[in-house]
Phage integrase family protein (Dinoroseobacter shibae), 397 residues
Amino acid sequence: MPKLTKRLVESLTVESRDYFVWDDEVKGFGVRVMRSGTRTYQVQYRKGGRTRRASIGRHGTVTVQQARQRAKELLGDVASGGNPVEEISQHRRASTVAALCERFFEAHVMERCKPSTQREYRRSIDFFINPAIGTFKVVDVERRDIAELHHKLRDKPYQANRTLGVLSKMFNLAEVWGLRPDGSNPCRHVPKYRERKRERYLSQAELRRLGEVLADCERSGSESPYVVAAFKLLILTGCRLGEIQTLRWDYLTPNGMELPDSKTGARRIPLPSAARAVLDALPHDPGNPYVIAGRIEGQHITDLQHPWRRIRDLAGLNDVRIHDLRHTYASNAVSSGMPIQMVGRLLGHTQLQTTMRYAHLADDPVRKAAEENAAALSEGLGLGLRARTTPLRVVKG
């Protein structure tokens, strides 16, 4: 067996079948000459009673010196108890991130998540995760890959953080399923972007304008009575859009709306008299179980976004989202002096921290009460001061 050199490898003749020429310097290192004329460098060893062989690279792509050095490294792993060929084979068979995404979606998301969450996860997978790292092997994904993906979405901080959350959950399950070592989640220590929570509440004047537009739409027939009723119910109950959109007549009881399922599970929502009046005025088709009936027989309205855009434009509320009606309900409750815990119960929050975003609004009734109390005391002191209706001007220095 001669020592393999560039000249020797290129001088080897092509035969009717593949054959090997082994190097006399490094045992187990050789070149395979194929019937097509292609020459590939090989490494061969025995492990567990079996002969293992792997290709190092094609002649011309790698030099004989590079191939010999790589063969030494692989054979060194064997001498240390490793089995590099098996490891290479396992890596080739290893799951890709795209395959993990599908398993994650089918085995976890579809089984455990609400439809709205399923849609959000599907969007993150299809638009952000798979295009960036879908072809990566699950075992090869590193923190820098996740950080780079997250950074590319920096102009969309909310979407960036939601996508990071999807990835984190997915790689946690990859460990459970044995696709990665324990404690190897590459999303760890990747900091989230700061999100600015939007707080838009309708003033009393804006509420009046909205009410007038809803009444005009109902009278003119430009919007269906179900569309108008949906927005009235959202304002009067503080419900989430999906809770009103999919509300069924059999959910209505003397105790309120008994929802068997919602974002936070089964929920009972009080129905004040104003909301019941809206429901009583709605046409009730016995063949349609849904309160907010759609055009398709037996179905609910599937699109309230387009009607809302038409209505808000007429009311001059171009920056108001449907979810802001829920914010308005909450802000009005807190500003009227309702305890923050009670507001959380009305909104169906499971954690007080979620409701605390409205806590600062509780200062309004406190300030008003302080002014009224001080005015009464000032009368007793003979100061003759009336309750101040404008804020104090603070003089600095």
Notes: The chain has a mean pLDDT of 88. The domain at 6-93 is CATH 3.30.160.390 (Double Stranded RNA Binding Domain). The longest helix spans residues 157-176. The chain has three domains: 6-93, 97-176, 204-360.
